[in-house]
Specification:
By secondary structure, this protein is of the alpha/beta class. 37% of the residues lie in helices and 21% in strands. The chain is built from 9 helices and 7 strands. It has a 7-stranded mixed β-sheet with strand order 3-2-1-4-5-7-6, sandwiched between helices. Helix 3 crosses helix 4. It is globular, with a radius of gyration of 17 Å. It starts with a strand and ends with a helix. The C terminus is likely disordered.
Length: 208
């Protein structure tokens, strides 16, 4: 599993603890935000360390080649700024970078909660418009939309995101949250390789 724009990494730590057989990777362009979570994960297992959690300093639009076409599941939880723009078609490099992480048959999951008060400079904020923009963006990258609906409070809480806790705890910050999911089902390793610029990644080679 890869969590893109992981921020403080709380979601990575919770998922890694709950799924010890899964390698959980958090990616963010801000090293400082991940520092505490990375320190905790690197500690001794007997003291709460997690040997199946890791953190990578990288921009969403330029993920490391070693992670490309690797993930069975990619999550993007409450993106904002350039990451949100990429999810909604405003930055093709970001959308492409996210799509590149998925292995054939993998699932891409979003929790999206843009609002007019965020001053998003023209990005859609209405639920139908947000879903349409995300679908248009990622279907162009050979992913198929399989679900788009309002997320329940239980789903928002289960995401493990610090922002999710803030949304649920403060009536002033509450807003609609959309759960949007895509699949790379039917996508072959060859077409995944095309998405990474015509090169097979080291992970591709290890599977052949």
């Amino acid at each position: 599993m890869i969590d893109v724009g992981t921020g403080d990494g709380r979601a990575v730590l919770e998922t890694a603890a709950a799924q010890p057989a899964t390698l959980v990777v958090g990616i963010d362009a801000n090293a400082a935000s991940m520092a505490e979570a990375s320190r905790r994960a690197a500690g001794p297992v007997r003291k709460g360390g997690l040997d199946n959690a890791m953190f990578v300093l990288a921009a969403a639009g330029a993920p490391p080649e070693e992670l490309r076409a690797l993930a069975a599941r990619v999550t993007v939880l409450f993106p904002w700024g350039s990451l949100l723009r990429g999810c909604l078609g405003g930055d093709p490099a970001v959308a492409r970078g996210i799509a590149q992480l998925l292995a054939p048959g993998g699932i891409l999951e979003f929790l999206l909660a843009p609002a007019d008060r965020d001053r998003l400079n023209g990005l859609p904020t209405g639920p139908a418009d947000v879903i349409e923009a995300a679908a248009r963006t990622f279907e162009a990258l050979r992913l198929r939309l399989i679900e788009a609906r309002t997320a329940s409070d239980a789903e928002v809480r289960a995401s493990g995101s610090t922002w999710a806790r803030r949304l649920l705890s403060n009536p002033a910050t509450r807003r609609d949250v959309l759960a949007v999911r895509f699949t790379a089902e039917g996508v072959t390793m060859a077409s995944r390789s095309e998405l990474v610029g015509g090169r097979r990644s080291p992970m591709d080679a290890s599977r052949s």
